[in-house]
Amino acid sequence: MEWTSSVVSVAGTAIHVRRGGKGSPVVVLHRDIGSPDRLAFYDALAAKHEVIIPNHPGYGASPRVDWLGNVRDVAAVYRAMLGQMGLGGATLVGLGFGGWIAAEMACFAPHDTPRLVLAGAMGIKPPVGDIFDQALVSYIEYVREGCHDKGTFGRIYGERPTSEQLVLWDLCREMSFRLAWKPYMFNHSLPHLLRAVKSKSVIVWGDDDRIVPASAGAVYAESLPHAQQATVANAGHLIEFEQPDAFARLITQFIAST
Amino acid sequence: MHLMYFTEQPMKDYPAEAGLEIGYTSLLMSNKHFNPVDGSRLYNEFLENYVYAEEMGVDGIMLNEHHNAPFCMQAKANIFASLLAGMTKRVKIVLLGNPLPLNDNPVRLAEELAMIDMISKGRLVSGFVRGGGQEQLATNANPAFNRERFQEAHDLIVKAWTVPGPFRWEGKHFHQRVVNPWALPLQQPHPRIWIPGVISHETIVWAAQNGYPYICLNTSIEDTKRIWQRYDAAAAEVGYTPGTEHRGYLIRCHVAETEEKALESARQFLWMDGEFTGRLKPVWASPSGYFSPSSRQTFVEFVAGQSASPSRPRKTFEQQLADLQIVAGTPEQVTRSLRTIMRETRPGIMAFWGNEGRMAQADAQTSIRLLGQEVMPALRETAKELDLKSPFETDMPVSRAWAEAQAQRKAAAE
Questions:
Q1: Which residues are CB-contacts of B233 (< 8 A; sequence separation ≥ 6)?
Q2: Gap from B129 CA to chain A (nearest CA, Å)
Q3: Chain B closest-CA separation from residue A252 CA (Å)
Q4: Which residue in A150, B46, B179, B181 has its CB near the most CB atoms, within 10 A?
């Protein structure tokens, strides 16, 4: 699969974007731990779709913007970016923290976001349990907590991650703290605003997600008027690491059916 | 020379075996292990020792605060400062200090400090700190904005003390409709501000730029000298040459009648053997955004558990004695070691971290007595020989900003 990189300037930010594949456009919004450039999941998705993967400002290759103060700011930047790129009608696939961004984007354009895929999405206070607090554990422990299978971590990052990877995680974590320290990883008004969102949605959860309680997924499904729910077996929070093909297939089928 | 007594206020009666079992003695160690009956007794012992230290001749009592850990029982330095303001007569009450980023209302802090200054009849030294890494987690203060909050809170407090209200404050982190506290410091223009720290480059430079004394917290002699180089260079850039009054040093120091007894007690300085004096997960000491961006590479290895602490490398008790990071012995032995430190690092302010861990109360008091009555008089002679003067002796301005404002006023008058 051919992937290209470019930088898109929006509202003074410089968003690093990777693109690959052909087909209906799918924008993948990554997690609070950033994203490896290449993943089997991205390739699987790009086999059927044009896949657009921006690095959030302050994550990975996109430089931090000091004025960016919350997740809605990120959502506003992304809405502007998609408009600028002619991708306003793209399917939004949000992974964990990226799911929260996607949900806020849908609230900004409730009639103009055709499809939402929210996977283990943060952004809502779970009625049962809490969103796992990464501040209390090391970068490595946090990623491991997101895995169902003990072998997943080493397969993606190697058993002893490089210093460069640790620095990348630290930058991501610092930016996540800037955006979502308190309340931690949710927005009290989001469930209310979601009621006005007309998007076709699928709320996906790994059956062993120990980072975001599935009860938050139920609130997403109740709040979004046109939502269905799906569970991915043998997956933790990091579904795309553990079940890349099943997850990509689920997205493709959802797009085809809506 | 200004000579102070300090203790971390150890909660020495916590069950050590519980800490060893879970592997940490901070942040998440359950407070079911805190016994308020012991707490009540210990708080009163600390108070007794502070008052005794004044009787024994110390110049100042240094206070600090930490949260969620047995190594320090003081969760609010201003509470002990308030008590000592009323219970003591002569000593300076030196807060090193209030952790500004942890506080959501700096004006309230300015009021409290002004009250302490008035009650103590102008004996307050109001140090400020960023708070340790785990303090950010314990109080839910965003570590990514730690330094911004520190600086903005400082600016607001100094303004509240020096600019007549009412005024409005709309900052980045703090917002006050009305700043007009009806409590102002007795000392004019405001109490002295001292900044304690370890190796944080930004804090050293900031203290130097403001003309605030920097108190090195038990750093090695070599590191202390490096800190002074950094401080002096930053001061030179803003146009002044620091003196001994800009330099402070905290040393763990225990004195007893015999060397054997002193060494036995001094082992308690390592009672929890770890970052500061507790065991903790490295990520708690260095939450993302808290440490200097220039040190990110170094700190991430520590946070991931892949390297030792960059700020406080672990050393054995014997090594720390040899390096003079712990000083213990008879009054003569301790005096000799402290003179070496004074000659090497030339501080105008020294703080003696006198008791720690499970030292017996009687031993803590013996150390205070010998320190005050035998060691300190000898050190004062040395200070004269070495010309080591405190900010009080040189009557240095409380800040560069104040000194410049005075100079401008004088020039305008002429």
A1: B208
A2: 21
A3: 37
A4: B46
The 8 Å CB, 24+ separation contacts for B401-410 are B401/B158, B401/B210, B401/B211, B402/B162, B402/B189, B403/B211
B93, burial (CB in 10 Å: exposed 0-12, middle 13-18, buried 19+): buried
Mutate to test the interface with B, among A142, A169, A174, A185 (most CBs of B within 10 A): A174
pTM of the full structure: 0.96
Taking CB atoms and an 8 Å limit, are A167 and B296 in contact across chains?
Answer: yes
Exposure of A1 in the CB half-sphere (CA atoms within 13 A):
21
Domain that holds residue A47: 3-257
Please tell me the distance from the alpha carbon of residue B414 to that of residue B412, in angstroms, as a whole number: 5
Measure A138 CA to nearest chain B CA, in Å: 5
- Tell the burial category of A246 from Cβ atoms under 10 Å away from its Cβ (0-12, 13-18, 19+): middle
Name the residue among B145, B284, B301 with its Cβ closest to that of A163.
Answer: B301
Give A49's strand partners.
A24
Q: How far apart are CA B411 and CA B409, in angstroms?
A: 5
CATH code for the domain in which residue A9 is found: 3.40.50.1820
Task: Write out pLDDT tens, residues A88-142.
Answer: 999 999 999 999 999 999 999 999 999 999 999 999 999 999 999 999 999 999 9
CB B306 to CB A166 under 8 A? yes
pLDDT score recorded for residue B103: 95
Low-confidence ranges of chain B (pLDDT < 70): 274-276, 311-313
* CA–CA distance, A18 with A16 (Å, rounded to integer): 7
**Strand A3-10, strand A13-20: pairing:** antiparallel
B288 and A174 within 8 Å at the Cβ level: the answer is: yes
Q: Which of B56, B96, B9 is nearest to B255 (CA)?
A: B56
Nearest-CA distance from B170 to chain A in Å?
Answer: 16
Identify the pLDDT of residue B82: 98
**Does A140 contact B305 at a Cβ distance shorter than 8 Å?**
yes
- Regarding beta strands A227-232 and A3-10, do their DSSP bridges make them parallel or antiparallel, or are they unpaired? unpaired
Residues contacting residue B51 through CB under 8 Å, at least 6 positions apart? B87, B88
At B4, phi and psi to the nearest 5?
-120, 155
pLDDT on residue A127: 98
Indicate the DSSP class of residue B32: G
Total residue count of chain B as it appears in this document: 414
Tell which residue, A126, A134, A128, has the closest CA to residue A190: A126
Q: Is the ipTM of this complex over 0.90?
A: yes
Q: Which residue of A has its CA nearest to B145?
A: A178
Q: How many domains does chain A have?
A: 1
**Nearest residue in B to A180, CA atom:** B142
Of A160, A161, A173, the CB nearest to B288: A173
Quick check: helix, strand or coil at residue B298?
helix
Task: Select the residue of B284, B287, B304 nearest A140 (Cβ to Cβ).
Answer: B304
**pLDDT computed for residue B400 by the predictor:** 97
